[in-house]
Amino acid sequence: MTIDGQTGRVTPPGAPGSLHRRFNACPDAIRVVLAQAQAWMLACGLSAILRAEAELVLAEVLNNIAEHAYASDCGPVDLRLRRCGDGILCLISDRGSAMPGDDLPKGASPMASTSRIARDDLPEGGFGWHLIRLLARDLRYRRNRDRNRLAFVLDAGNWR
Amino acid sequence: MDLVAETLGGALVVRAQMARIDAAIAIAFKEQMRALVAGSESRVILDMARVEFLDSSGLGAVVAVMKMLGPDRRLELAALTPAVERVFRLTRMDRVFTLHATAPPAGGSADGGVWPVTTDTADDD
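Output (structure tokens, whole complex):
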């Protein structure tokens, strides 16, 4: 067990201050990494709410990389999670296509247009970036040569 | 893929056996649901008590199932776990579906007994 001199935070034994995984962005590999991230957060003593939020946001980010940046070609992803105050800092990079316009999607709610939407017009997609924007804080995106780099903080402050 | 269907009273109750409805199985989930609902004209209740995780791909698949039922049949969702319920709430899709706190018990009746009769929280089309 270690105690952080500045924050006084106690890290349980066997729970390193960060998690680093390199993997290919295929649906099955993403499932495995999400499970490893959950195990790491559990070992860190992070709350069930924060773990649930992180599982959803990381799933959305990684699925987007798989489906859009790599167009389902299962390219390499680098994921780092670090303790950051009461939350976690997430750093994710890939070598896929850049975000359109080198900027993050606005993530407007697909349901925002009206309170009544005919059933046939109900959206089946477009929820991913809406959820990421709702739950992640301090989102940063940079296209650096051939890499996408995404950083954000999760602290469960927006998980209602 | 694990979906178990039974007819209870006037309802087709589909019990999702998987812990996750995510990008890895969203398409298979949708296609298996399509096959299950095709042979029935009754209301459809999806028992999600065992589903602990739903991402936006899974949500999209559930919406697609509702749309494939056509205008006269609503997809009702039962026994949402907290993380799944939050996804519906955050995306405002909780207003679109009829949500039930619990699922009809096996071998019971979807219309009566201890299982509550529909509390329709969604707008009519």
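Chain A has a mean pLDDT of 89.
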